[in-house]
Amino acid sequence: MIYSEKVLDHFTNPRNVGELPDANAIGEMGNAKCGDIMKIYMKIENNIIENVSFKTFGCGAAIATSSMATELIKGKSIEEALQLTNKAVVEALDGLPPVKVHCSVLAEQSIKAAIADYYTRLGIDPTPIVGVIDECDACHDHGCCHEE
Ligand code: FES
C-alpha cells in the first residue's frame, strides 16, 4: 500500500493528540466493522473552535486523517467545521488508498458528534443543525478495509 508523504508525516508526527481538559464539546464515534474508536475534544467560544484535539484507538490512516482534520478546523467557525468533508481531508493529505478512505469518515463523523454534543449541552436539539450521525454510513458508503 502506498501512502503519501503527508499521510506518513501526520501518522508519525500527529498534531493535536490528547484530551482537552477544558473541552466543552466531546464526540466519540466507532466503526462497527473494524472496531476502531475516535474521540474528538473541542473548546468552542463564540461559535469558534478555539482548540481541538483527538484520541484514537485506530489505524494509521485514522490517526493521519484526524490529525489533518483537527488542523483544518482549528480557529474555524462551527459552520465551517460542519462543512468539512472526509473528501477534503483526504485531498489535504494528497490522497489515501481506496480501502482506507472509510477511516477518514471516522474523523468527519466524530467532529459532527462533538458539535452535536456542544449543542446538546446548551439544551439545543442538534439534529436540525448537524443532521443525523450514523456511524454505519461510513461502512455502507465507502466499504470497510476489514471486509472481504
Ligand atoms: Fe478502522 Fe482504519 S479506521 S481500519
Report on the structure:
By secondary structure, the protein is an alpha+beta fold. The protein has helices at residues 5-12, 60-73, 78-83, 86-92, 101-121, 127-130, 135-142, and strands spanning 25-30, 37-45, 48-57. It is globular. The model is unreliable at 142-148 (pLDDT under 50). Residues 31, 34, 36, 58-59, 61-62, 103, 106, 145 line the site of FE2/S2 (inorganic) cluster. FE2/S2 (inorganic) cluster binds next to helix 2 and helix 5.
Quickly describe the structure.
This protein has 148 residues and is of the alpha+beta class. 46% of the residues lie in helices and 17% in strands. It contains seven helices and three strands; from the N terminus they run H-E-E-E-H-H-H-H-H-H.
Total beta strand runs: 3
Question: How much helix, percentage-wise, in residues?
Answer: 40-55%
* Intertermini distance: 17 Å
Distinct small-molecule ligands in the complex: FE2/S2 (inorganic) cluster
Quaternary structure state of the chains depicted:
single chain
Global Rg: 14 Å
Give the structural class. Answer: alpha+beta
Q: State the low-pLDDT regions, or none.
A: 142-148
The major β-sheet equals: 3 strands, antiparallel
| Average pLDDT, all residues | 89
Show the helix and strand layout.
Layout: H1 5-12, E1 25-30, E2 37-45, E3 48-57, H2 60-73, H3 78-83, H4 86-92, H5 101-121, H6 127-130, H7 135-142
Antiparallel strand pairs: 1-2, 2-3
Helix pairs in contact: 1-2, 2-4, 2-5, 4-5, 5-7
The structure holds FE2/S2 (inorganic) cluster.
